[in-house]
Every structure is written in structure tokens, then in C-alpha cells.
Write a structure and sequence with these properties.
Number of domains: 1
Structural class: alpha+beta
Organism: Zhenpiania hominis
Number of strands: 4
InterPro entries: GrdX-like
Distance between the termini: 10 Å
Protein name: GrdX family protein
Strand order of the largest sheet: 2-1-4-3
Length: 125
């Protein structure tokens, strides 16, 4: 199966290169919103979520987001997957002012959390 990683986290991109994993990486320079919008576009084109992007996140705000999609979406999965990523957008909007005020140290911590969650999922694919 063909997998694509959509991320705004440079640590995830470095991890994939270091491990020489065969994934397509779509690097987004910006916010969680940009990652969600690109993910939603791909879902509408027939991709599907490979792992739950809310797994390990719950209602926690994080300035970094990594989503893994695969090329096997069905109409039923697309609908559920789009709703799932929309929940990420809701969390982002509710916490936007908090995210904008993070220090560089806090951003580094959040980057490490996102990378750890993602790497754990990628290692199982």
C-alpha cells in the first residue's frame, strides 16, 4: 500500500529520512489548520486515514500535527475520516490563542510528542 504523511513537524520528516522509510512526505510549513486542509483534500480524493490522528491527543492542543493516509479509501471510510480530521480543526480553533503564545521550548516539547506518537505508528506499518 502507498502511504503519505502530512505534517508540519520537521522532526517527523527527519525521522522518515533517517529510517529510510518508503513514505511520501507532504511537508506543510504552518499550522495544524494547513495540515488538516491538505488531509481533507486527500481524503476527498480517495485516500483514507491509516491511524487515528486523535490517538494520544484527546482534547490536548498541539502546534504540530502529523497524519498518515493510505490509498484505499471507500465512501464510508471517507465520510468518517473527514469528520475525524474536522475534530482536529475544532481543537485547533478552540486553542489557537494558547498555541500562538507558546515558547520555543514548549514548541520543542510538543514536536517531540507528535514525533513520538507518529514514529510509533509508522514502525507498525
Amino acid at each position: 500500500m502507498c502511504y503519505m504523511i502530512i505534517t508540519n513537524n520537521p522532526e517527523v520528516e527527519r525521522y522518515v529520512k533517517r529510517k529510510k522509510k518508503q513514505f511520501i512526505v507532504s511537508k506543510r510549513n504552518g499550522t495544524v489548520k494547513e495540515v488538516v486542509m491538505e488531509t481533507r483534500r486527500l481524503l476527498m480524493e480517495g485516500w483514507s486515514l491509516v491511524c487515528d490522528p486523535l490517538g494520544g491527543r484527546k482534547e490536548r492542543a498541539n502546534p504540530y500535527l502529523t497524519v498518515v493516509v493510505g490509498r484505499n479509501g471507500t465512501l464510508e471510510s471517507i465520510t468518517c475520516d473527514v469528520l475525524r480530521v474536522e475534530q482536529l480543526l475544532d481543537i485547533y480553533y478552540r486553542n489557537r490563542s494558547y498555541l500562538e503564545g507558546l515558547s520555543e521550548r514548549q514548541r520543542m516539547d510538543y514536536s517531540a510528542i507528535d514525533c513520538s506518537l507518529t514514529c510509533g505508528a509508522l514502525d507498525k506499518l
